[in-house]
Structure formats: C-alpha cells, structure tokens
From TrEMBL:
Residues 280-302 form the Ice-binding protein C-terminal domain. Residues 1-38 form the signal peptide. It comes from Thermohahella caldifontis. This is VWA domain-containing protein. The keyword Metal-binding does not apply. It comes from the Bacteria. CDD domains: vWFA. Transmembrane segments: none annotated. Keywords: Signal. Pfam families: PEP-CTERM.
Amino acid sequence: MQPLTNLATWSIIMKNFSTSLKAAIGAIVLSMSAGAGAVAITTDVITVVDESGSMSGEHAWLGGMIQSLDAAFNTVAAGDPVSTQYGLVGFGGAGSHLAGHKHNVGGGDFGTAPQYAAATGSLVLNGGFEDGYSGIHTALNDYTLRPTARTNVILVTDEDRDNLNTNSLTFSSILNNLKAENALLNAVVNARFRCSDGSSALGMDSSGKGYKADGSGGVTTCGSASAWFGAGSTISDYVKLALATGGAAWDLNQLRAGGLKADSFTKAFIDVKVQETIRPVPEPGTLALLGLGLAGLGFRRKLSA
C-alpha cells in the first residue's frame, strides 16, 4: 500500500479539519427542530491501530476524526448528558509493539478526545507483521469497560491478518468476545465496496446500505452494497467480522485518495458511528438532519503525494 507520505501536510489538514467540522456541526444543531428528541450518550471508544510503516497518514487522521466524532456526540445529545472516553491500542510494530498493547491516553487507559489526539503521537511506524485480532483482543480484555456504555472498537489497518501463532484467537473467538461486550466493530481496511449498480462505495453497514462520495465532499447512500475485493484475506478476517457485530466496514483507499473524497469518507464514518452509538434512537428529524448536515459540509483538504 502507498502511504500518505507528506506528514506535515496531514498535520496542517487535521488541525484545520477538526476546528472546521466542530463549527459546522454546531451550525447544524441550530437548525434542528425544537421538537426533536435529545439523547444521553455513554460510550467507550477504543481504536485498534496498525503500526506498520505505511500507516502515517491514518495515524494523523485519527486525532482529528475522534475530536470531530466527540463534537458530533455532543451535538446530537443537545444538552442531555454525554460521557465519552477514548482509548488507543497499537499492534503490528516492531519488538514490544508487535502484539496488541495499550498506549497511554491522558495519563491512563482512557482520556478525552484532545488527550487521545495527543496520544496518537506515541504510535510507531516500524512494523510489518500485523495481527489485528491481537489488537482487538487487547481492547476487549485489557481495559475496564463500563457496563452502561456502548463499546465501540475501531480497527484501522491496510493489511489482512498475520497470525502471530502465539495465541488461539480465531474469527469465532473474537466475534464471541465482541458480542459478550456488546461491542460494535468498525473496520477501516484495504477492501473495496460497491453498490448494486456497480458504482464505488466508501463503505457499508450491516444492513447492506452503502455510502458514496457525491463529488462535492458530501455523502449519498445506496442499497445492496457489498465487498468485492480485499487484500489477501481482509474480507474474511475483518469485513465480515465488523458486519457480524452490527458495525460497518470501510475502504481505507478512499480516505487515502485525499481531497473531497476523504472529506466524504470522514463525514460518512462519523455519521454512521453516531447512529450506531445513540441509545435510544432520537426522533427521525434529528438523525436525518445530522446525516444531511454532515453530508453537505463542503470542507476541502488537499493532500500532497
């Protein structure tokens, strides 16, 4: 996989991106109808991140994305209580970073969104053998998860699973572990998705709904989406796993494309994560407006190869 090599450009992009998206989401909530239902949100979000040499762009993206996701949670809650905390697991690096392991966030396992963004600087880029199951296992078993919280696990990797052969982790055991924690898995991976008409999709959710870039930085949807290509065993390792939890799977290459397509990817990802996390589901007008607002934001990010 070709990494996004201009890390300085990524840093500038994400600094501006986070602030702009938060401001735009704030504008969206001002136009929500007074009768729309607010909702309390409690969630533990843990990202499980590949630390191989090609992942610099994704490491830079994560901090801004999490801060924007946190802003979206607060927007949808509309004044109701919000309790979010964010953790960071690495895997696939060299030495002690090979197997799944915790990264300190804000002085502990979990921290705030800004503390998480700072913690992504501790990720390394020196590996090449990536066992994502090891990272997911760490997220589910080495953290104290709140029983009242929705557990969200976000896997980010550009390779299929490399089995460390030092554990007995399997698709079934990881899926059972995810279900036991009532955890949703979203997988940002090297897989391609398409709609029923054959057009390219950014990703898909467990209902078969696909998410498409509209060419202007927004998002449209389609039905009967499917994964049609994956690097190695990516589809069987990760895409099917995410969908089996009720989560979603995403094409990392669409993020790496940069520009308006990357804008669309991030908006779709955040919108889906909010929808998955909300308990109870708010009145339809609230959620529909959030989706339309995220889809309509016209941010522009230029990436240098």
